Amino acid sequence: MHGIKTLMPLFVLLLLVPFAGAKLIENPEAVSYMHASIVKDGIVFIEPQGPLARATGLSVYLSIPQNTNRQDSVLQGVEGPDSYEIEEDEWGNEMIKLYWNNPPLERDIDYRISFDVEIQDKMNPAPGKSFKTTSMTRASLEMTEKAYNLVSDFSDVERLFKLTEWVYYWVDYEHAYQNLPKEAEWVFENRKGICSSNSNLLISLLRELGFNAYYVIGYAYTEETPGTYWGPHGWVEVEYGDKSISLDPTWMESPVDGTHIKFANAPDSNYTERAEIIGSQVKLVWTRNEPEIDIIEIEDSERVGIQAEFVPEEVGGESYALLLTRVSSLSSSECVLSYMQIQSCAIGEGYFLDIPIENQTLAFCGNETLFWFVKTAKLKGSTIYTCPVSVYAAGALKKPQLRARALTKNVHVRMSTPKVLTPNQVFTVETTLENHGFSKKSLKAYLIIDEEMQSKDLELDPGHQAKLTWTQRAPATPGDVKLKFFSSSGDLLEQDLTVISKRHVKIEKVSIPENITLEDSLFLNVTVKGLEQVRGELQVKIGGESQTREFYIDKDEIKNFIFPYTPESEGNKEISVILLSEGLYEDGMIGNLLVVRESAWWGQILEWINGFFAWISSLFGF
Structurally, what CATH architecture does the domain formed by 302-404 represent? Predict the structure, then answer.
């Protein structure tokens, strides 16, 4: 009987409701409702500056928690001033004005105001007011070009998310700029700042695309200020249709969670409270304390639903598995911006799985599918390992399980693909799967490029192979893109492709046989076609051996080149073909050649026999 061992999860994210009055929130992004008390206090001191010093009136204007569709704020009490009133500032925000008649000199003048605030997971309607562009949000020509290039392939709310994600990764958070507000153009060029800097930059880019975006002054839960766990924070709201969508470029979050307390809207981060005195020969010294925020009650809920499954559910040692995560929105907004992270279970003091990419951006409306590849450790013996993998996103946590044990790999995979493409070019990828085992294989195959996935099911008899042809379209913009081919046999092939804006010469055809023996010689035939008159260079590498041919070709002319190769060892040999013109990378392809020691049929028979004994051994736990 096989031994079974369940490995321990490396971490657990708590989604429990903290007790009333607790300051520490395990998972702020999961907070869908918060009830809190907020106290703002401070001290004003009036210093005489001459023999005729006097003060007849003192006014202090303070921002306060706003009343919106999402946030209810009730003034609970005001202590200190002779009188107070609620006023609106020039942008329509409610402010409280505290007033003292004949305030004393050389004595502390205290004030304290308290609010009861409730925040719920609701959308705010668009305010329908215009916020002008300021020096803090003015964009340079380079910024305008960047904004349009970033969203050229996106539509609707995806543009908002793409710009927010870009700012999140572009700007490095540095505490040194805590009290140094920076203009959007400076932040764009220097790539550093704090939340106000991120927000100014995002507002600038959104405005260049025609959106009415504005700054939000507020407070949010953060472990950056231990003890209080609350700090001043800035984020962005943007009008979209009849709604106001909240975007947090510092934490890459939309809509913002229930710990974001809104105090005011403004065109940029330059929003200040003020104190005014009526008198002569006096100086005002004003000490403002950060609000004291105490949680009365919070409710946590998953903002997204997650379905997660491994393909296959059981793999061998040093093999790959595909983790498919399907995410759907449970928020009051159908659109969600966040990130998803996965983490392996633990084995001893390390990880059981190698996970090259642990975090991915989650940006979708309705639902989205993200995929991840994991690789198991080297395994020996007959023990079956069960590894729960933690999948977390926007307040939700799932733990799909992957089973692994020592297995003999009997499926071999190969891939042939062009390496250089032009925008929107339709191209084909050829993949081959060979069953060298003793039993029939039911397999799933996946081809992934630029986050687009295709899949095919196949049955593969012993000693047989299957050729799969995939039709793909290159991305619309130049750049690098990753192509991945995965088989549920536990195999993953990856290739970097390059999309170029224009091509002057191209590879018309490359003839690669399926396999050869050690006694054979290969004559690789490469056909090149000129799209313009140009000088070029053809580079071919087979199993580490390089050969180069220089050429001159006219427009529409076709030339053939032959590259001889004699193998020195058996195994899978990568074939790389690169086409250059005047130093420019024009075209390329990647393929594989299998070199066998004996004739192909005899080698397969031996592999079938080996596979049979490996199968028998696995049945009896040898």
Answer: Sandwich (2.60)
Q: Which of 493, 156, 500 is nearest to 334 (CA)?
A: 156
Q: Which among 276, 298, 297 is positioned nearest to 286, based on CA atoms?
A: 276
CA dihedral for 175, 176, 181, 184, sign (positive or negative): negative
Q: Residue 311: pLDDT band by 50, 70, 90 thresholds?
A: very high
Q: Which two tokens stand for residue 25?
A: 């929130």
Q: Is 544 exposed, middle or buried (0-12, 13-18, 19+ CB in 10 A)?
A: exposed
SS3 string of 409-461? CCEEEEEEEECEECCCCEEEEEEEEEECCCCCEEEEEEEEECCEEEEEEEEEC
Q: How many CB atoms lie within 10 A of CB 267?
A: 20
DSSP string, 238-300: EEETTEEEEEBTTTTBBS--TT-EEEEEESSS----EEEEEEESEEEEEEEPPPEEEEEEEEE
Domain residues of the chain, as ranges?
28-122+272-300, 302-404, 411-602
Its pTM stands at 0.80
Place of tokens 């004559």: 523
354 and 375 Cβ atoms separated by less than 8 Å: yes
- SS3 per residue for 572-617: EEEEEEEEEECCEEEEEEEEEEEEECCCHHHHHHHHHHHHHHHHHH
Model pLDDT, residue 64: 97
Q: What fold, for 411-602?
A: Immunoglobulin-like (2.60.40)
CATH architecture of 28-122+272-300: Sandwich (2.60)
Pick from 604, 600, 412, 419: nearest CA to 513: 600
428/437 Cα distance (integer angstroms): 29
What number is the average pLDDT over the span 443-466?
A: 91
Q: What per-residue confidence (pLDDT) applies to 611?
A: 57
Here the tokens at position 357 are 């990419």
Structure tokens that stand for 144 in this block:
């305008």
Residue among 234, 263, 235, 218 at smallest CA distance from 95 = 263
Bridge partners, 125 (sequence order): 243
CB-based contacts of 232-236 (< 8 A; 24+ apart in sequence): 232/290, 233/195, 233/260, 234/195, 234/196, 234/199, 234/269, 235/195, 235/199, 235/260, 236/164, 236/199, 236/202, 236/203, 236/206
Q: Is the dihedral of CA 144, 145, 150, 156 positive or negative?
A: positive
| pLDDT of amino acid 518 | 83
Instruction: Tell me whether the CATH fold assigned to 28-122+272-300 matches the one assigned to 302-404.
Output: yes
Mean pLDDT of the chain: 88
Yes or no: say if 515 and 499 are a contact pair by the CB < 8 Å rule.
no
- 33 is written with which tokens? 């409702």
Are the C-beta atoms of 373 and 322 separated by less than 8 Å?
A: yes
Arithmetic mean of pLDDT, 297-314: 92
For residue 358, give the DSSP letter.
Answer: -
Q: Could you report the per-residue pLDDT of 259-270, keeping only the tens digit for each?
A: 999 999 999 999
